[in-house]
Amino acid sequence: MEASEDSDSRMAMSSDNTKGLILALSSSFFIGASFIVKKKGLKKAGASGVRAGVGGYSYLYEPLWWAGMITMIVGEIANFAAYAFAPAILVTPLGALSIIISAALAHIMLREKLHIFGILGCVLCIVGSVTIVLHAPREREIESVKEVWDLATEPGFLVYATLVTAAVFIIIIHFIPQYGQTHVIAYIGVCSLVGSLSVMSVRALGIALKLTFSGMNQLIYPQTWVFALVVITCVLTQINYLNKAIDTFNTAVVSPIYYVMFTTLTIVASVIMFKDWAGQNPTQIATELCGFVTILSGTFLLHKTKDMNDGSSASTLLRLHKHTEEDGFVPEGIPLRCQESTRSS
C-alpha cells in the first residue's frame, strides 16, 4: 500500500514537472518573438520621436510595440504558471530557447547578422540548459503562502534581497547616466538583479494561486498581496530598462546576456530562498554547474561574434556614425563599448 502511494506521489510530481516544462517552452517562444516585434516598434517610434534609449517614451504610441508587449505578456503569463508547477532551476534555464528564436528572427527580420560562431554559441546555451534540466531537483512541497513567506524572511535571503536592492540603486543612479549608452551590462544588470527578486515573488504568487484553485484559499493572507506588489514593481522596472537595452544595442547580444545574468541570479536566489540544492548530492550540483559553464561559453562566443561583425575596424565605426548622422537613429551595429578613437573623433 505504501509503495503504491509513493508511486502515485512520484507520478503526480512528474505530471507537475511536465506541465511546468510545457509552459516554460511556450513562454520561450512568445518571449523570443516579442523581442523582435518590440524592436521593430521601437525603431519605428524612434524614427519620428525621441528614442527610448535616450529617455523617450514615444514607443507608447506605437501599435507595433504594443503587439510585442502583448506577446511578451502572454509569454510571461506562461512563465508565471510554470513556476507554480516546477522549481526555478528547472524552469529558468529553458529561457535559452528564446535566445535562439530571438537571434534567428533578428537575423531574418532585422538584418542583424548572426555569425557562424554565434550559432554555435546558441547551441552551447541549449546544451548547457538541457544539462541543468536533466539534473534539476524535485519541486519542494509547499502547503501555504505563509510557508513561502517564512522562507523569504530568513536571514540568508533577506541579506541577498538587501544587496540586490542596493546594487540596483547604485547602477541606476551612478552607472547608467555615465555608461548606459556604451555598456549593455548597465541596463541588463538592473533587469537581471530585479528579475531574480521578481521570480521569487512570482513563484510565491503562483503557488498561492495554485493552492487557491485547489480549494485552499490563500487570498485571505496579506503575504499573498505583498508578493503581488513586489511582482508588479519588479516587472515594471524590468520592462523599462529592457526597453532601453534593446533599443540601444543589438538584439542578438541583449538576449543572451540577459538570459545568462537573469538565469544565474535567479537560480542563486532560488537556492538561497527555497534551498533547491539541499536534497542533491555533489555530483548533481557539479553537473548543473557544468551546465552553467557551457551556457557562459555560448554567451562568450556570441560576444565575440558581435565584435567581429561590428567593431573589427575603424572604417566600420565611421560608417556607423555616418548612418547615425543621416537618420538620427543609432544603428543596429552599435558596439558594446565605445572605442576611444571614436570618442576623440
- Radius of gyration (Å): 21 Å
Major sheet summary line: none
Q: Give the overall shape, derived from the CA principal axes.
A: globular
- Global structural class: mainly alpha
What is the percentage of strand-forming residues?
under 5%
Count every helix, treating DSSP H or I runs of 4 or more residues as helices. 13
The oligomerization state is single chain
Distance between the termini: 79 Å
Instruction: List unreliable stretches of 5+ residues.
Output: 1-13, 310-345
Mean pLDDT: 78
**Series of H and E elements:** HHHHHHHHHHHHH
What is the total domain count? 1
Per DSSP E runs of 2 or more residues, the count of β-strands stands at: 0
Query: What percent of residues adopt helix (DSSP H or I)?
Result: over 70%
GO cellular component, one term: early endosome
Membrane topology: Multi-pass membrane protein
Pfam families: Mg_trans_NIPA
Subcellular location: Cell membrane; Early endosome; Membrane
Structure, described:
- The chain is an all-alpha fold.
- It has one domain (2-344).
- It is built from 13 helices and no strands.
- Helix 1 runs parallel beside helix 4 (96-109) and helix 8 (184-213) crosses helix 10 (251-274).
- The N and C termini lie far apart (79 Å).
What is shown here, in short?
Helices cover 78% and strands 0% of the residues. The protein has helices at residues 2-48, 63-85, 88-91, 96-109, 116-134, 145-152, 155-179, 184-213, 222-248, 251-274, 282-310, 314-327, 340-344.
